[in-house]
């Protein structure tokens, strides 16, 4: 996906009705020794980092339970859409654990430190509407009979992104992701570098020409 220029947006969904991702299999985890657990979680953390580093926008379609590592997977995505009936939570403390695949870092960056601490300390599960109210998800929708309402809304969101200039969208994602980790002056420099890379693109020239000619732009990602 990372190197496929035809890919404009990635949507993560589950094939299991009622479950986005239920997190670790604790029966499997119980059979591991301490070293195996450490290696397993390290690999899981690396996977989440790989997802977060994808150059194109990513959307998590949460149509059911997103617990523990399941919510960490959703947090590794750029955008999240949830059914109002979905259940989300970093429930690790209820099992004698703490989030180990990015949850302690990505949740506070998403909803703020105090709310993240409350959810992690308590291991509380929240529904889609509660998640929307605290900014954990971008959109919440009533579940449908097929059980894929969040996925359908995610597709609609993806189709809003698709017509836009791919190089510019990727540059915007990179500037945001890098800039949010530094002071604003450094962030402005990062934005400047991303913008400078966009200036000579054919898509920018196409955008200007389309505006001048009063027609929809035809972006090619070059």
UniProtKB/TrEMBL annotation:
Keywords on record: Lyase
Any GO BP annotation: fatty acid beta-oxidation
Keyword field contains Nucleus: no
Entry keyword Lyase: yes
Stretches of the chain forming a coiled coil according to its record: none
Superkingdom of the organism of origin: Eukaryota
GO molecular function, one term: enoyl-CoA hydratase activity
PANTHER family: ENOYL-COA HYDRATASE DOMAIN-CONTAINING PROTEIN 2, MITOCHONDRIAL, ENOYL-COA HYDRATASE-RELATED
Record-stated family: Belongs to the enoyl-CoA hydratase/isomerase family.
Protein name: ECHD2 protein
Lineage: Eukaryota, Metazoa, Chordata, Craniata, Vertebrata
Gene (name only): Echdc2
